[in-house]
Amino acid sequence: MKTKTPGASIRTGTGADDLRQAFLDNLVCALGRLPSHATSHDHYLALALTVRDHVMERGVKSFERGDTQQIRRVAYLSAEFLPGPHLGNHLLNLGLTGTADKALDGLGIDLDQVLAQEQEPGLGNGGLGRLASCYLDSLATVGVQSVGYGIRYEFGIFDQTIRDGWQVEVTDKWLHGGNPWEVYRPGAVQEVKFGGHTEVVTDAAGRSRVHWVPAIVVRGEAYDTPISGFDSDTCALMRLWKSEAVESFDFEAFNHGDYDRAVEQKVASENLSKVLYPNDELHRGKELRLKQQYFFTSCALQDMLRIQSLRGSPPDSFHRNWAVQLNDTHPAIAVAELMRLLVDVHALEWDAAWSVTRATLSYTNHTLLPEALERWPVDMLGGLLPRHLEIIYEINAHFLDEVRAAFPGDDERLARLSLIDESGLRYVRMANLACVGSQTVNGVAELHSELLRQTVLVDFAALWPDKFTNVTNGVTPRRFVALANPGLGKLLTKTAGKSWPGDLDKLRKIEPHTDDPRFRSEWREVKLSNKRQLAALIAERTGIEVAPESLFDVQVKRIHEYKRQHLNLLHVLTLYLRLKRDPKADIPARTFIFGGKAAPGYFLAKRIIRLATAASDLINNDRDVAGRIKVVFFPDFNVRNAQSIYPAADLSEQVSLAGMEASGTGNMKMSLNGALTIGTLDGANVEIREAVGAENFFLFGLNAGEVVALKRGGYRPRDRYDSDPLLREVIDFIGSGALGGDVDLFQPLVANLLDHDPYLLLADYRGYLNAQQRVSELWMDPEAWTRASILNTARMGRFSSDRSIRDYCQRVWNVNIKKQKK
Ligand code: Z16
């Protein structure tokens, strides 16, 4: 018998003819479609299967290498991933875009139309989930062995539609057309227990062990999605868990005639991975959420132990095989679960297990917002995970002994550090658990890491200063430049060579061209063409016509008071009122573009969307300001839409109150695409400004220290309103009913600002207006603006997620990078 060796497979030839043949084979053999009857969606599935073969082949080989060389793998535990559409990204990474285009062209099929068919997996809320996906992309690119573990939500983040100016949530159906990227792994199934009680038993060796007798057992099924790297022979694996009923359990109830209970049990089990919670920075304490967290964390750790034992490696060297990163506290129960698995299941002594646990886990914090910090009522956690509560108590007892030794007699410190909040109803503090159980704790930007050490985790920093470090976030330049902005990509390649997507510091090479008028005009041409494309998309999605030559002023991100989309709107409406008063005012034409989802239960965030749509309706239909300003609320901001919006931005709005945005990553994506930033000294803005140069960044607002001082001194927003006529005019305007709708539609927003203003909009209003004035002035000097735009891109190399991953490898994971890019 003659067979091709893997790697020389007929399915993975790289010529246009090979690709076309494989595509047709998949259409007919895998999908059962006649080419003459196939739809665009069939074409998409067939091409996806074709490309998946190429990715799988690399993935299998890189995993095999990891096993034979016993390499320490990175496990990135995250309740959220936001990969975006896969197909175009894989083609880019494999260097097959042109070939695929040619292969399909030969059949009269348009690649772009095929790419448009893919439903993106919206398995995350925003920055945290997208960061996880950028990191898998970079892990694969720099050649680190990795698995991203998470939940295969059947329903991801809702689709946002706008009806009568309000956000209306529509159920996400990402799996409805079938998902060609995932592979079900029957061999990796896990069981996860819930409830019941614990017993002390004596094992065969005469040793006392705790045995957990659960009330319920749920099955975790693994679905693998390979994540390719750019120009790399390594693949990352995204392994997502789907919950299913354990069959035997169904039958037991069924056989006893308790059919209803049997079905109930099945439904409850399947519900675990049904739906993503749509709150980005709000802990609501729902039991189902805790179940989800434990479910995927337990599946992940059991899976790692299984792989470990397949390698023939004993459980006490778990930390040598795995570096486990906790993406926020969502998987923090891992601390107790790994202890349980090592002590109860694998019979390690407590101290040995604790050393292994602490050498394995590391924790990334993503927010300082107190309402986002997770804590679970002791009764809820103990009811669901009785053994884990015992383990948490024991960890706490050891830990508090250590604290007493370091700080004798300091009971208040003890109470603050304790894993249990006992100030009222008792809670388990997940951030404390994560800190105690981790090797390293990091924030996501310099300022954020510093504030972490000074505020939320100050007592931990005093106890273990060396545990703390910073890893500034990064973004993948493959998806967010090469794929999203091919025009810019071409110009960068022509000017800086072709290696920039895998070595972003190469962008520096364009800096000498800043003063070349020809280069500047090419640069402007690229941006204008991106703006034309976005204008067409805006017209299609909203019916609004915008001028591509106007300044595109963009704020796209989750809607949140601390992000201050309403400060942006105060500026929009101030400009509008000024134009009404003074039609000849020398204000350059601007298009304000907003986008972002509000958590369905977040009342004020939904009012902020309503304010944006009201401003849009009023301004776009007022002939007095025609050709001057326009306002767009772009519905359903997601990864795909982001890829159309970022490349068209002239101005990036990063206006959060200083000290509130942990990092931000949209700020990086826009600056990398040549937008100038108007922003506060918050999150990664601080580092972006340092990198691109203060003269190429519009800074305004209080800094984090001034925010604390102002609040402490008794901030009175109404005084600002009383003393500033412009501010008074715009607030009164919003409250007057002139924006249409019910007269008191915006009363809650106005009252919130005048009486509380927790995010100090009124304090930063003047500074913001002044910075916007500087924006307008620079915009009127196109050569100077272009120069600043080029310098933004040229100097953003450090914000590649490849750099972040290298930092993690050095400072956190202690993993060697196989492939050093030249
Ligand atoms: C999230 O997206 C973030 C923090 C958080 O606690 C929960 C969610 Cl869903 C964001 C931060 O707000 C943002 O500043 C940061 O850039 C991002 O996480 C990634 O670190």
Question: What percentage of amino acids are in beta strands?
Answer: 5-15%
* Biggest sheet, spatial arrangement of strands: 5-8-9-2-1-10-11-15-16
What is the annotated CATH architecture of the largest domain?
Answer: 3-Layer(aba) Sandwich
* Uncertain runs: none
| Largest sheet report | 9 strands, mixed
- Counted beta strands: 22
- What is the approximate shape? globular
Tally of individual helices:
33
Number of domains: 3
Entry keywords:
822 residues; globular; 9-stranded mixed β-sheet; alpha/beta; Rossmann fold; binds (1S)-1,5-anhydro-1-(3-chloro-2,5-dihydroxyphenyl)-D-glucitol; 48% helix; 33 helices; 3 domains; 22 strands; 6-stranded parallel β-sheet
Outline the structure in words.
By secondary structure, the protein is α/β, with parallel strands linked by helices. The protein folds into three domains: 1-69 and 88-119, no CATH class; 70-85 and 120-439, Glycogen Phosphorylase B (Rossmann fold, 3-Layer(aba) Sandwich), CATH 3.40.50.2000; 493-540 and 548-806, Glycogen Phosphorylase B (Rossmann fold). The protein is built from 33 helices and 22 strands. A nine-stranded mixed sheet has the order 5-8-9-2-1-10-11-15-16. Strands 19-18-17-20-21-22 form a six-stranded parallel sheet, with helices on both faces. A three-stranded antiparallel sheet has the order 12-14-13. Helix 1 crosses helix 2 (40-68), helix 11 (334-345) packs across helix 14 (386-406) and helix 13 (378-384) packs across helix 14. The longest helix is centred in the N-terminal third of the chain and has 29 residues, at 40-68. It is globular. 50% of the residues are buried. Bound molecules: (1S)-1,5-anhydro-1-(3-chloro-2,5-dihydroxyphenyl)-D-glucitol (Z16). The site of (1S)-1,5-anhydro-1-(3-chloro-2,5-dihydroxyphenyl)-D-glucitol has 19 residues, from helix 6. Pfam families: Phosphorylase. Its EC number is 2.4.1.1. It comes from Luteolibacter arcticus. Its cofactor is pyridoxal 5'-phosphate. Belongs to the glycogen phosphorylase family.
